[in-house]
């Protein structure tokens, strides 16, 4: 092999061999609008959705069946006779329309109980978040402790206290305990501390606004997402309340829907009782309709309320 020859005055040209640039792995940029996809999470969420929607599908399908069709057909498919409208008519008129009375009772407990609990939580949360006073730490510890105590543990003491006051077997035995919502108070406390700038309140006071006017015209509009969130929580809790009315109310005329439907379900096992399982299922379907409508109408405020304060600039 001969060496390369160069003439005089000619400088050898340096030949450089550049190594090929390593290929950069194509990385997908993920963002809020282009989230990362995961097959495992997709399957997990699919199973969760099926688990959550299967009882609702069973309820809707079986509300279309007659009493005989409930036992002669598969539970997750329709029978030959479509009896939904007839079942709704029978549910609303059975036993002199007692279902409508139970529905109005539940509406009363929700409007007065859950509405009052939300109003008290807003007032208390705003006061705890924006005013300093002696014993504030003790109030905070009390509220946190009350959130941790299950309502079932307080049922018997509450019953004994209301029995001494002569309020059992009256609507007040359900409404007054529903007015207390430690979780709603804590949620409004945290939300008010983040959503209302203290400087804004001071500016309103400098302009001569009183405390009530400052609260209703300045603070309350800023608290709307938190108010809706607390209202939804307390409304669902009161609407589904079963144990407290069970120990407080003996008169069927003051039953909420939860107790009334359970009474219809149990009359099949009593001597001489008429089984009305088709009415129990149809009544259960009618019971959840107002909750679904409320969630669909208020979900925008609810989501913004839950996300408030999660990201700080």
Question: Could you walk me through the main structural features you see in this protein, from its secondary elements to its overall organization?
Answer:
- By secondary structure, this protein is an all-alpha fold.
- Helices cover about 65% and strands about 0% of the residues.
- It has 13 helices and no strands.
- The longest helix has about 45 residues.
- It starts with about 40 loop residues before the first helix and ends in a 6-residue tail after the last helix.
- The N terminus is likely disordered.
List the helices and strands and how they pair.
Layout: H1 39-62, H2 67-72, H3 84-130, H4 136-148, H5 155-165, H6 172-178, H7 182-195, H8 198-206, H9 211-222, H10 224-239, H11 243-248, H12 257-266, H13 277-307
Helix pairs in contact: 3-6, 3-7, 3-10, 3-13, 4-7, 7-10, 8-9, 10-13, 12-13
Concise account of the structure shown:
By secondary structure, the protein is mostly helical. It contains 13 helices and no strands.
Share of β-strand residues? under 5%
How far apart are the first and last residues' alpha carbons, in Å? 71 Å
Radius of gyration using CA atoms only: 32 Å
What number is the mean pLDDT? 86
Major sheet: size, sense and barrel closure?
A: none
């Amino acid at each position: 092999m001969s060496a390369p020859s160069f003439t005089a005055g000619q400088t050898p040209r340096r030949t450089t061999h550049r190594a090929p640039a390593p290929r950069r792995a194509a990385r997908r940029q993920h963002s809020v609008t282009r989230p990362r996809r995961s097959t495992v999470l997709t399957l997990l969420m699919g199973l969760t959705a099926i688990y959550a929607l299967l009882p609702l599908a069973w309820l809707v399908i079986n509300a279309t069946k007659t009493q005989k069709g409930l036992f002669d057909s598969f539970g997750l498919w329709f029978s030959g006779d479509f009896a939904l409208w007839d079942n709704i008519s029978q549910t609303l008129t059975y036993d002199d329309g007692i279902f409508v009375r139970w529905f109005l009772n539940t509406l009363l407990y929700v409007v007065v109980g859950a509405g009052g609990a939300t109003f008290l939580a807003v007032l208390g949360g705003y006061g705890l978040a924006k005013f300093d006073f002696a014993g504030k730490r003790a109030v905070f510890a009390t509220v946190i402790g009350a959130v941790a105590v299950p309502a079932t543990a307080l049922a018997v003491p509450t019953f004994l206290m209301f029995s001494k006051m002569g309020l059992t077997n009256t609507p007040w035995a359900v409404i007054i305990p529903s007015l207390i919502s430690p979780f709603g108070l804590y949620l409004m406390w945290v939300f008010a501390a983040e959503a209302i700038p203290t400087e804004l309140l001071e500016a309103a006071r400098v302009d001569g606004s009183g405390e009530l006017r400052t609260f209703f015209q300045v603070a309350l509009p800023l608290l709307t997402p938190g108010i809706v969130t607390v209202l939804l929580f307390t409304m669902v809790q009161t609407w589904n309340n079963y144990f407290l009315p069970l120990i407080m109310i003996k008169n069927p005329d003051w039953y909420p829907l939860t107790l009334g439907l359970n009474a219809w379900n149990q009359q099949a096992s009593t001597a001489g009782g008429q089984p009305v399982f088709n009415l129990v299922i149809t009544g259960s379907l009618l019971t959840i309709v107002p909750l679904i409508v409320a969630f669909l109408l208020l979900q925008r405020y609810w989501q913004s309320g839950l996300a408030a304060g999660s990201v700080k600039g």
